[in-house]
Amino acid sequence: MWRAAVILNLVLPPLTATAALAAPETVYFRSADGATEIVGYLFRPQGAGPHPAVVLLHGRGGPYSLNFNRNCTLVARNTASPCNAATLSKRHAMWGEFWASRGVIALLPDSFGPRGKAHGFGRFTHDDPERASVNELTVRPLDAEGALVYLRTRGDVDANRILLQGWSNGGSTALNVMIRQGARAGFRAALAFYPGCGRSALLDDTIRTTTPITMFLGEDDDEVSPTICQHVAERSLAAGTKLDATMYPGATHDFDDPGERRQSVPANAAARADAMAKAVRVVEGKR
């Protein structure tokens, strides 16, 4: 279903916990490639659970703050690095804390650091040869699938309520995971924020899956084409995929980034509030 949204003064659902949350825990698990050990950052809610969980897939800039990632190379077990749980970007920390405060475990895998690319990549670098080893087609989906396997081993996770969320390059990765998943059991739902949907970003121009997908697009996106994503969504809907896409008028790429630059745009602030509220409903099964 396609929706064009104009939202003002939307209030997010109340928190389920009021006490301070613990800092994210650093964990390690194996990518589904069978070889790469992925470092991840786990945001845990209060209580023993089992809790629903969300795997968070960072964009092309990586999971770390720009203030630190320029000095990063390899991020691995027992390796000192300025890129760690304390130097995550504001957006990733915000979303991890957002989910944990609502009783949801959030796992943010770093696909770049364990492969020596923790510095991330700048805008319009999709054709950079360095990105081949961390691409969203054949590499990063395996990290997401490895995260799913890892979460299912945890006693505090509801193994039947694990969702996927990604931004930009991570949003494309999330859509590729859905293409790979098809009709098989796996992630319960997927949330894709302003993904790249071009032929070089997706495994197929039509997503065929039995898993519900929610897509959030900014009409004034300055990095990827929301129109191409709209066409992908239309073909996928026609193919029988349960895909709910919202186009936010005036919103840009990274509209949910909590930084002042993005949030000073009223359309971004409205889109962020609406998308976060809809994401909660998806996790609660009220999509």
Write a structural description.
By secondary structure, the chain is of the alpha/beta class. It has a single domain (about 1-285), classed as Alpha/Beta hydrolase fold, catalytic domain (Rossmann fold, 3-Layer(aba) Sandwich), CATH 3.40.50.1820. The protein has 7 helices and 9 strands; from the N terminus they run ββββααβαβαββαβαα. The chain has helices at about 65-70, 90-100, 140-150, 170-180, 225-240, 260-265, 265-285; strands at about 1-5, 25-30, 35-45, 50-55, 105-110, 155-165, 190-195, 215-220, 245-250. The chain has a 9-stranded mixed sheet, with helices on both faces. Strand 2 (about 25-30) and strand 3 form a beta hairpin. It is globular and about 50 Å long. Mean pLDDT is about 90; it is low at about 5-20.
Q: Number of DSSP helices?
A: 7
* Cα Rg: 17 Å
Total domains, how many? 1
Give the rounded overall mean pLDDT. 91
Find the count of extended strands (DSSP E, 2+ residues).
9
- Main sheet strand line-up: 1-9-8-7-6-4-5-3-2
Share in β-strands: 15-25%
Named CATH topology: Rossmann fold
- Give the distance, in angstroms, between the N- and C-terminal Cα atoms: 12 Å
Shape: globular
- What is the helical fraction, as a range of percent? 25-40%
In terms of structural class, how would the helical and strand content be classed? alpha/beta
Supply the CATH architecture.
3-Layer(aba) Sandwich
CATH superfamily: Alpha/Beta hydrolase fold, catalytic domain
- The poorly predicted ranges are 6-19
